[in-house]
Amino acid sequence: MSQTQQQPQYPPFQPQQPQRAARNGLGTAALILGIIGALSGLIPIMFWLAGILGVIALILGLSGRGRAKRGEATNKGVALAGALLGLVSLGLSVFGAYTTFKAVDDAVDEINKSVSDTGAKGTDKAGKDDKGSGAKDEAPAKGKALDAGDSVIYDDDLTITVSNAVTWNPSEYAAGHTKGNHAYKVTVTVENKTKAKFDSTLLTAEARAGKDGVDAEQIFDDKVGTGFSGSILPGKKATVVYGFDAPADAKNLTVEVSPSFEYDATHWDLKL
């Protein structure tokens, strides 16, 4: 009997498929753009560039991470780093925008304040001239005081008038009066011709007496020296009487009125 020799069986040959190259471009691009965006965000004025690059880096980083999860890319960590740097760039962009706009607003406010502070008119207004007209006089020379009864009109039309100094005898309960000195009453009138109410509590009045400019102490006696209170509505006016103590030999009283820190102070030279 003959035996049949069995031939060994081999699995069918399968051709080896070529390995696909890793698609790491998105993750690498995200990392580069994220780094540039974060560096740009360190400069507040470059907030716009940091914001744009941050958005792109975030999108590319998340897309690259998705590729890595599907096995199409091998740089999962790089893509994640790019996405995180994109978030950092966006945060720096928001902070830079806030800082830049705030700096611009502050600069504009300072310019407006400077213009307001230097724009006070030195125009004085006499009650009436020799012909009885109510025309405004020319502005007094710089460094010179106004006369009694004259008015100063500021740029916003706030008008302040100081009357002549009038002698009076303070009561025995008056504060600020020294025996042997003369007491004078000065009336200050504020007319609010602006479009907004004026906080009159900020107004201050001080005085100096004589050629040596000795401080004239303010006298408080009943309603004299109480100062303004509350606000003055547009189109309204308010009047307050101040009292000042001056040496007996003083020939003049220089009164300085400051409406508030937003206005320049104005001086009146009152003859005693």
UniProtKB/TrEMBL annotation:
<dbReference type="Pfam" id="PF11611">
    <property type="entry name" value="DUF4352"/>
</dbReference>
<keyword id="KW-1133">Transmembrane helix</keyword>
<feature type="transmembrane region" description="Helical">
    <location>
        <begin position="77"/>
        <end position="98"/>
    </location>
</feature>
<dbReference type="InterPro" id="IPR029051">
    <property type="entry name" value="DUF4352"/>
</dbReference>
<keyword id="KW-0732">Signal</keyword>
<feature type="transmembrane region" description="Helical">
    <location>
        <begin position="21"/>
        <end position="39"/>
    </location>
</feature>
<feature type="region of interest" description="Disordered">
    <location>
        <begin position="118"/>
        <end position="143"/>
    </location>
</feature>
<feature type="region of interest" description="Disordered">
    <location>
        <begin position="1"/>
        <end position="20"/>
    </location>
</feature>
<keyword id="KW-0472">Membrane</keyword>
<feature type="compositionally biased region" description="Basic and acidic residues">
    <location>
        <begin position="122"/>
        <end position="143"/>
    </location>
</feature>
<feature type="transmembrane region" description="Helical">
    <location>
        <begin position="45"/>
        <end position="65"/>
    </location>
</feature>
<protein>
    <submittedName>
        <fullName>DUF4190 and DUF4352 domain-containing protein</fullName>
    </submittedName>
</protein>
<keyword id="KW-0812">Transmembrane</keyword>
<dbReference type="InterPro" id="IPR029050">
    <property type="entry name" value="Immunoprotect_excell_Ig-like"/>
</dbReference>
<feature type="domain" description="DUF4352">
    <location>
        <begin position="155"/>
        <end position="265"/>
    </location>
</feature>
